[in-house]
Amino acid sequence: MPAAESYPDDLKYHSAHDWARIDGEEATLGITWYAQDSLGELVHYEPPEEGAAITKDSSYGEVESVKAVSDIVAPLSGEVVAVNAKVVDAPETVNEDPYGEGWLVRVRITEPSELEALLDAEAYKLLVAEQ
Amino acid sequence: MVPFAGWEMPVSYAGVIPEHLAVRSDCGVFDVSHMGQIEVEGPRAKELLQGLLANDLDRIEGGGAQYTLLTNERGGIVDDLIVYERDERHYLLVVNAGNRENALAWLSEREIRGSDVRDVSDRYALLAVQGPRSLERLGLREAAPFTFAEETLDGIETMVARTGYTGEAGAELLVPGEDAEALWQLVLDRGARPCGLGARDTLRLEVCYPLHGADITQETDAISAGLGWVCALDKDFMGATKLRRIKQAGPERRLVAFVMTDRAVPRGGMPVLEPRGEVTSGTHSPMLDRGIGMAYVPAGAAAPDTELTIDVRGKPRRARVVEKPIYKREET
Q1: What is this model's ipTM?
Q2: Mean predicted confidence (pLDDT) in A53-74
Q3: pLDDT single digits (tens) A6-54
Q4: Burial class (CB in 10 A: 0-12, 13-18, 19+), A79
Q5: Spatial distance between the Cα atoms of B54 and B233, rounded to a whole number of angstroms
């Protein structure tokens, strides 16, 4: 079942429709409800390798629906410490639970100062409303 | 909505995958009114078409339909289409939307005295009702594939053709444009799920029906594309000489079906790295839950189980050649 639209308050957002859950020196990343809804049912997740360095505003992987492929943009820079194997096996998990089971990677944050530029839920909702 | 051959078409109404599964398990309806309809009529209508269409109209009779090709001098494919024979003086051709102008010009330029070619596309709407429960839902009797008849559905006079593009049982319903909305509503009321272009593509690719403009074009010939069965090489039609030659010598490359062994979704235009070739269509198969596609590869590498390496956006990904169709309903 597709999830209902939501943008949790405890997350930080990037304008390319990605979210980050900051947890000390680490962050969990994923794509927002809006992103998965625009793409439709995901059928493939091309993750980065563990240990790879990802850079804010650059692509670190791909998600693909029946219709289209989309780059996943890093909301912050870091080193990948875990890839969600469940999403590799069952990409539709992202549609079902974009902020929970459908997370994409965990990273160790390398540029903490970048966090200030991320949007809070209210600002991101405004951005989605303009789409 | 996406623009498609001058029409605004829905990619999906409520998701490609649920629409796909509805057609495989029950019943879905596609509004394919964008497709072109060309009538060819007159005492020499059959003679004209026999010289231009690859398949042999002697294989069908009134009330029969046939999958066929409009071929050029080089054996290339101008369009693939279904011809419906009302009688030997009156045929209806249902052509691809993107090729309507081309096909019409192709036929009109070669018209002979005693054959009249008319574009009647704007007069008709076409709904494809597809899936194992389609006939039951529409209250239609069983009939042989590739036949058609005039029938009345809740007072709407409809040409009911036993044809489709999904590999499932079903019917294509041709009505005058003014009856389209009522028919669409009727079909929905009978429980058909509305389906868009997305599911139309995934369904046809699972059963390896070629898409003109992707798998077959003016530059590809029917023999290499695996459509030799559509070509009556014992009759004379445009390009027949060339096609006989290709058949005799054996084509240099063949259009094969493949299933990804690695996780990846192939797409049309991706290079096949090993052996050298090109993907013409690719998608994610909802039935197999894998990437699938068709590709031209050297004829020597066309046997089932041959391993292919496909360049998926810069990454080599493995696939395996399989027999067509890729998806086959399990006999129960």
Answers
A1: 0.84
A2: 95
A3: 999 999 999 999 999 999 999 999 999 999 999 999 999 999 999 999 9
A4: middle
A5: 8
Where are chain B's structural domains? 2-34+123-205, 252-332
The rounded mean pLDDT for chain B is 96
This prediction has a pTM of 0.93
Which residues of chain B, if any, have pLDDT below 50? Answer: none
- Pairwise CA distance, residues B3 & A118, whole Å: 36
Asked if A40's CB is within 8 angstroms of B202's CB, the reply is no
- Please report which residue ranges of A4-120 form alpha helices under DSSP H: 33-39, 85-89, 93-96
Contact A40 B15 (CB under 8 A): yes
Nearest CA in chain A to B282: A66
Structure tokens at B259: 């299933």
- The CA distance from B32 to B44, in Å, is 30
CATH superfamily of B2-34+123-205: Probable tRNA modification gtpase trme; domain 1 (3.30.1360.120)
- Per-residue HEC secondary structure of B130-198 comes to ECCCHHHHHCCCCCCCCEEEEEEECCEEEEEECCCCCCCCEEEEEEEHHHHHHHHHHHHHCCCEEECHH
CA–CA min distance A102, chain B (Å): 18
- For B214, phi then psi, to 5°, come to -120, -70
Q: By the 8 A CB rule, do B308 and B242 touch? A: no
CA distance B330 to B327: 9
Summarised one tens digit per residue, pLDDT across range B202-236 is 999 999 999 999 999 999 999 999 999 999 999 99
Paired strand residues for B90: B41, B87
Q: Which of residues 29-68 of A touch B (CB under 8 A)?
A: 40-41, 43-44, 46, 62, 64-67
Domain range B252-332, CATH class: mainly beta
CB pairs under 8 A between A and B: 36
**Chain A CB within 8 Å of residue B141 CB:** no
Chain A residue numbers touching B263 (CB-CB < 8 A): 44, 88
The domains of chain A, with CATH numbers, are 12-122 (2.40.50.100)
